[in-house]
Every structure is written in structure tokens, then in C-alpha cells.
Amino acid sequence: MRMNRRDILFAGAAILGAGVLNTRPVQASQLPTVELGTRTITTLSDGNLVLPLSFSFPDVPQQELVAILKANGLPVDRLEPDCNITVLRDADRLVVFDVGAGPNFMPSAGRLPDSLAAAGIDPGEVTDVVFTHAHPDHIWGLLDDFDEVIFPDANYHMGRAEWDYWRAGDTLEKTPEARKSFVIGAQNRMAVLEDHIRLFNFGDEIVPGVEAVDTRGHTPGHTSFAIHDGSQSMMVLGDVVTGLVSFEKPDWPSNSDQDTNQAIATRLQVMDRMATDKMHIVGFHLPNSGIGFVERKDAAYRFVAG
Asked: DSSP labels for 102-171?
């Protein structure tokens, strides 16, 4: 059998990946898992980000922010949000939501190849890749160290509004200098997908039982996904919330949101729905593998892992 460079990379990750992420190999049975009817949803780690507070929440009361971080046992001079890749498996599909940061965004992120290997998942098995949005930590992992597509046999899906925004000819010009690399990185990877992407609209069924939910604000076409099986449902949130601070202060402006007011309105609406419906959620940047529930707490919310 002839091996291409991606196969060689995966083989190397299978040998070394467990050592990078943990002191012992992670078995598939140990992964955080939710059984949803006939489907299994789990998460894989892509590592974490390291962000200064001045980037994430520059326009909020800093003493109050530090108090929230202290109360949650978090560092008070930076944010280190986890990056959780959601994986959905059923009888005939293996669906991955987002692809992580890849090797060129941040040293603490880009661990998805290692996590796949540790979990015993061959990238060639993945049938579908579904994007919540096109920020670097969600799409730059499309390509490996050799600039080859990490999931070579998958169908790729992105919201039409998100695709059109990043692909527009004037997006780079309108983007602040500090984030122009976000646009260039997204456009480079979208060029690779141009002949393979399947665009969808809000409300569409992407694959059987997976519904695209309008959660714009973080980006113009940001999409969450409701996974349905019979009477059971689970929501893949993406970046509707970007950490525990978003639960306690959902109305605080975050510098990571492109449309601040819309993002706040979306966040409040989604969190109210999740708390009311007691629906399982997966958050890309939430702790404890991102799986849990939203509960009301006083005038705001809290994240309950599980």
C-alpha cells in the first residue's frame, strides 16, 4: 500500500500523540460521551488558547472580571479556554464539527491529529466535516504540516452566510489590521475547499438529524447545530459562549465577537432556551470536554458539566 504524507503524519501521531496529550494513551472508551438515541457524541481536544484579558474583555469592569476568574479557579491575568472538537457517530456516518487550529496558529493548540490517533480514529473514516464558523481555531486545522487536507474523504459543510462573508472581495480591506491574518488564513483554506464545499442555509438539515441553527453575531454566519434523535436533542454551540465568564455575564461585550450587540442577543436567547429545555450542550471553549448543561443562576446562568 502506498502511503501519502498525510498517512505518514497520522502514523507518527499514533505513536507520539498520547505522550503529547497525556501520560498514558487515551482509549476510546475513556472519552467523554453522550448517548443520544442511536447516536454517540463525544469530544476530542485540540489543546487550548492563551489570550490576554485585554484582548478578550477590554471593556468590562476589570475587578469584577478578576473576581469571577478567581471564583472559578482560573488564572487572573489571562484566559486559557479549551478547544473541544465534537464528533458524532451513528450507523453510517462519522461527523466532525470544526477542525481546530492546525499547526500555525498558536503553540498550545492544534492537537487534533494527536487526539484522533489516541482515540483510534482514522481521519479517512470521517464522512462529514461541519463548520460553525471560520475563525482560525475552527478552520485552520483543515490542513496538516504538509498543507494536505486532514480529512481527505469527507464532505465539507459551511453556512452560506459565513462562506460569503469570508470570501467577499472587500472583507480583507474592512478588517482591522490585527485580524487581517484571520481573513487570509480563512480564504486560503476556503480556496482548498472551493470545489468540495456544500453550502447550507439556517434551518437546513445538514446531514440526517443535524439542523443548522442561526446563531450569528460572533461572526456574520456563525451557526450552531441541533442534533436530534427521536425526542432527544443536543446542541453544538460553537462560540455562542467562549468560556465560563459568558455564563455569569452573558451581556458583557467580548472582543472576540464581530457584531457585539448581535452576539449578546444571540447568547442570551440560546442560553435561555438551553436552560428551559434542559438540553445537553457542547461548547467549543468550555471546560471538562465542553459537554454539559446550562442552568439558571440568579439573573444569569452557570455551566454544569456532565
From this structure: -TTS-TTB--HHHHHHHHT--GGG--EEE-S--SHHHHGGGB-TTS-BSSTT-EEEEEHHHHHHHHSTTH
Nine cell digits for residue 223? 451557526
Q: What angle do CA 121, 83, 298 make, to 5 degrees?
A: 130
Domain, as residue range, for 288: 5-305
Closest residue by Cα to residue 284 from 119, 80, 98: 98
Element (DSSP H or E) covering residue 236: strand 232-238
Number of domains in the chain: 1
Q: What is the pLDDT of residue 30?
A: 63
| pLDDT tens by residue, 110-122 | 999 999 999 999 9
Could you report the per-residue pLDDT of 29-73, keeping only the tens digit for each?
467 889 999 999 999 999 999 999 888 999 999 999 999 999 999
Contact 186, 139 (CB under 8 A): yes
Residues β-bridged to residue 294: 303
Burial of residue 35, with CB atoms counted within 10 A of its CB: 0-12 exposed, 13-18 middle, 19 or more buried: exposed
Nearest-CA neighbor of 62 among 46, 76, 48?
76
Whole-angstrom distance, CA of residue 127 vs CA of residue 155: 6
Query: What order of strands is seen across the sheet that includes strand 280-283?
Result: 205-207, 210-214, 223-229, 232-238, 280-283, 291-297, 300-305
pLDDT per residue as tens digits for the range 177-226: 989 999 999 999 999 999 999 999 999 999 999 999 999 999 999 999 99
Q: Give the CATH number of the domain where residue 147 resides.
A: 3.60.15.10
**pLDDT tens digits, one per residue of 145-187:** 888 999 999 999 999 999 999 999 999 999 999 899 999 999 9
Buried b (16+ CB within 10 A) or exposed e, 106-131: beebbbbbbbbbbbebebeebbbbbb
